[in-house]
């Protein structure tokens, strides 16, 4: 049941496959005879230095993978000198994760019908040194995840959402209990105007996650967000939404460099990171590979996943003739939209 929950996507899982396949359709245009005796992957996000443009995406309930849960993930992210985005549905509390490592952390938030709960979570994160709020905007309700519906997916009580305040939810005895829970919590009436409310309750920078069109990218910039994450929630929300990498350039063009653009969904190789950067992303985030590393070998497994991606990116940069992150440009990739010269 937990494997299905981690691995699965919405409905026919067309978008789940597409998230990876869209990367496969992009080729890299390497340059030769560039001095790549030193390759430097370091960069910054919102001014915070990281060793490579690969962050840990917010994913729920790490205790389903191992008993230590998010504490192990946070230590692995710190060891890799990168940023972890803690999910609102973390199975360890905001405070526990904060005291387990001194790495830079962001906190992912949904806005609930009960605004006081969202406000409290954001303020707890700010008080405990989280450096940004990641507002996930693609979840007015949960997508139709058929594996979870068949499995009657539920978190066991001992792995409850410590990050949240316990709320009594009426669970029906069929379908995904998670879906029932989420749909009772989420404020499906949320609108762009509500970003102003979020601004009023936190002084942290706000990144908006779940943008897939130039229209929404433009609105996000107008709404004053500090960054955009191009994402389809790991293909768990709307099936047949586009693969993030296939719409990245559209978003980057609309944003015109006003705020950083990040991407997640289907990043499995260093070459994928390279391609996303060439199309204008400042960094990528990784979801499922981190969970699988965690389930296989705890903190060490997540470290291995992050090291593998970093090593692959380093090799890709060397072989493509890019000694630094800023050397990776649009002309280093060819997409299916590019005409052959
Ligand atoms: C997620 N994701 C997610 N996103 C979010 O904003 N809040 C959340 O609580 C969760 N929870 C969650 C659980 C699980 C099991 C998965 C797989 C994903 C989405 C996540 O942040 C990210 O967008 C995707 O996981 C990226 O795609 P890949 O790397 O998994 O392909």
Layout of SSEs?
Layout (H helix, E strand, L loop, with lengths): L1 H6 L6 H11 L2 E2 L14 E3 L2 E3 L3 E3 L13 H10 L4 E3 L7 H7 L4 E5 L5 H13 L5 E4 L9 H6 L25 H9 L8 H8 L4 E6 L2 H9 L4 E4 L13 H12 L5 E4 L5 H9 L4 E4 L1 H33 L12 E2 L7
Parallel strand pairs: 4-11, 5-6, 6-7, 7-8, 8-9, 9-10, 10-11
Antiparallel strand pairs: 1-12, 2-3
The structure holds ligand FNR.
The site of ligand FNR has 25 residues, from helix 1 and helix 12.
From the spread of the alpha carbons, the general shape counts as globular
What's the architecture, going by CATH? Alpha-Beta Barrel
| Name of the CATH class | Alpha Beta
- Average pLDDT works out at 93
Derived from helix and strand composition plus strand pairing, the structural class reads alpha/beta
Rounded to the nearest angstrom, the distance between the terminal CA atoms is: 50 Å
Strand content: 5-15%
| Bound molecule types | ligand FNR
CATH topology: TIM Barrel
Main location: other
EC number: 1.1.3.15
Family: Belongs to the FMN-dependent alpha-hydroxy acid dehydrogenase family.
Keywords: Flavoprotein, FMN, Oxidoreductase, Peroxisome
Structure report:
This protein has helices spanning 2-7, 14-24, 70-79, 94-100, 115-127, 146-151, 177-185, 194-201, 214-222, 244-255, 270-278, 288-320; strands at 27-28, 43-45, 48-50, 54-56, 84-86, 105-109, 133-136, 206-211, 227-230, 261-264, 283-286, 333-334. With 341 residues, it is an alpha/beta fold. The chain has a single domain, classed as TIM Barrel, CATH 3.20.20. It has an 8-stranded parallel sheet. Helix 5 links the parallel strand 6 and strand 7 (133-136). The protein is globular. The chain starts with a helix and ends in a 7-residue tail after the last strand. The model is unreliable at 165-172 (pLDDT under 50). It binds ligand FNR. Ligand FNR binds at residues 5-6, 19, 57-60, 87-89, 108, 136, 209, 231, 233-234, 236, 264-267, 286-288, 291. Ligand FNR is lined by residues 5-6, 19, 57-60, 87-89, 108, 136, 209, 231, 233-234, 236, 264-267, 286-288, 291.
